[in-house]
Write a structure and sequence with these properties.
The chain has helices at about 1-25, 30-35, 60-70, 85-90, 105-110, 150-155, 175-185, 195-205, 230-245, 245-255; strands at about 35-40, 50, 55, 75-80, 95, 110-115, 120-125, 145, 170, 190-195, 205-210, 215-220, 220-225. It is α/β, with parallel strands linked by helices. The chain has two domains: about 30-115 and about 220-255, D-Maltodextrin-Binding Protein, domain 2 (3-Layer(aba) Sandwich); about 120-215, 3-Layer(aba) Sandwich (D-Maltodextrin-Binding Protein, domain 2), CATH 3.40.190.10. The structure holds arginine (ARG).
Length: about 260
């Protein structure tokens, strides 16, 4: 009998520990911790960049703040490598990934995406006096990109798939580094999203954006597939903010219409 009691106590203890772990991991965690942890890569103006006081600001940071307010959660933003965002969200290290991130079929295999809150296009930055006048001139040139971005993926693809092949692409950890490589003549052009491209061209002399646009993309918020509840709440918050005109307000603040 004594032995039986001991075994029972042990079984109960195990069940208790497992239950406790289950309660604080996964789904309910975001709400229980009271925090909404967002992973971003803050080198992508005007979506996310470091403000004067070193704080992360930009369109995504402001929209995320409004979403967190709607969900009554405290927003915490973590600045990480762009290429680590999806895996971090997938593993539950971060609740959301928001980084001017394009919805792609490959990413959808690993995470869920919210409804789209903005559009993006890939453009080509070149030196004003350089021989590249259209995307037809890109062949055989060295293209700078930000590691793991859609610009990287498209350009590194094989020519049969519309790319230029890996050998013609140099990937940098930040878009700004790719642009510096262009300025220094290490690459012939940079393929990157249009709004950051405009900021980089503004900040550096002698650069221009080719008139041809590469692709049309939807930006959305990545959420773990294990957290459909959070995805639903984010979509509801986005719909409300959109309806109230708050999203447009933020976008227009960073991207003046006449630019
Ligand atoms: N839209 C592109 C993509 O999803 C680039 C995003 C880069 N974002 C960033 N915060 N660095 O691949």
């Amino acid at each position: 009998m004594k032995k039986f009691t001991k075994v029972l106590a042990l079984v109960l203890a195990v069940v208790f520990v497992v239950a406790a772990f289950a309660a604080c991991g996964g789904k309910g965690d975001t709400i229980e911790s009271g925090k909404l942890i967002m992973a971003t890569n803050a080198a992508f103006p005007p979506y996310e960049f470091l403000g004067e006081d070193g704080k992360i600001v930009g369109i995504d940071a402001e929209i995320a703040q409004l979403i967190a307010d709607e969900l009554k959660l405290e927003l915490v933003i973590e600045d990480i490598e762009f290429g680590s965002i999806i895996t971090g969200v997938q593993s539950g290290k971060y609740d959301i990934g928001m980084a001017g991130m394009t919805v792609t079929p490959e990413r959808l295999e690993n995470v869920n995406f919210s409804t789209s809150y903005a559009n993006g296009v890939q453009v080509v930055i070149v030196k004003e006096d350089f021989a590249i006048k259209s995307i037809d001139d890109l062949e055989g040139k060295m293209i700078g990109v930000q590691e793991g971005t859609t610009g990287h993926i498209y350009c590194a693809d094989t020519p049969e798939n519309g790319g230029y092949g890996e050998d013609n692409v140099t990937a940098y950890s930040k878009g700004a580094d790719a642009v510096q490589a262009l300025v220094a003549g290490k690459v012939d052009c940079v393929v990157i999203d249009r709004e950051p491209a405009k900021e980089f061209v503004k900040a550096n002399e002698g650069l221009t954006i080719l008139a041809t646009e590469f692709t049309n993309e939807d930006y959305a918020i990545a959420v773990s597939k294990d957290n459909p509840e959070l995805l639903e709440k984010i979509n509801a918050a986005l719909a409300k903010l959109e309806e109230e005109g708050k999203i447009d307000e933020i976008v227009n603040k960073y991207i003046p219409v006449n630019e």
